[in-house]
Amino acid sequence: EQLPGDLTVAIRTSELIMRTMEFPTADPEELSSMVGFQIDKVSPFPIDQLAVSHEILKPTENGALVLIVAAKRDRIDEIGDIFQQKNLYIHSMDARVLGWLHLRENEGHLEATGCEILIIDDEIDFALVFLSNGLPISIRSLHATLNEDGIVDELTHEIGYTLTTLDAEHNLPAPSAIAIWCRQNPSSDMLDQLKEKSGLAIQCNDLAALPPLSKGIIARALRTDNRLELIPREWVEHEKNKRLQKKFALISAAIV
Predict the structure, then answer these.
(1) E strands, 88-191, where?
(2) Each residue of 63-87: pLDDT tens digit?
(3) CB 68 within 8 Å of CB 42
(4) Helix crossing, 96-106 with 213-221: angle to 10°?
(5) Measured between alpha carbons, how far is 136 from 72 in angstroms, rounded to an integer?
(6) CA atoms 162, 167, 113, 70: torsion sign
(7) What does pTM read for this prediction?
């Protein structure tokens, strides 16, 4: 009936639009307007139907490299309603895949230089992630599992297409391997096919070797600035007003 502390909801990649872009400014107000304009260009949904947020990955010489994330607003509201029925207020909304990336970096599995290709399959999310010098430059969801028919062809197509697209913008070095992070090891036949068709070495890693995903999400939620936040602003204002009303009622009762 009760959950003490602040509540954070982590959303799977398939529910999100995620883009990494470089902007010619790091000013928060200017970034917010530019982010909205850019996501409106790539989203299949109108901007007024989206909850949009961003976080700065690193400052650049002329501005900042920024991760943009958007979700359908009706989906956000649906999640909020589920918790509201239990009288629970959601303090924060994040992306599951970013929790895994945080844990991987924190546990020392991050390559600080070069181009990395990650496949993350935790049996809820199936994400294809490209990193450049340790920073995510592309995060995509695939509606698949590692052991289903046709997955090798789908992966090699997506990897080849994404590398071609990213190389024009980021001038990426050639990746040396594909790192798979999953719950259950894929079949040896699938791994052999992926190695042959991609021309890259395959590294298999067990997600159980990392701490629980909740630890990564909590660590991100505890950051006080520059973090993704998909909570709609009106939710925050509504909760502030509720707390002020409660405080006012207590003060009034004390005075009486």
Answers:
(1) 90-95, 115-121, 126-132, 135-141, 177-182
(2) 999 999 999 999 999 999 998 888 8
(3) no
(4) 100
(5) 22
(6) negative
(7) 0.87
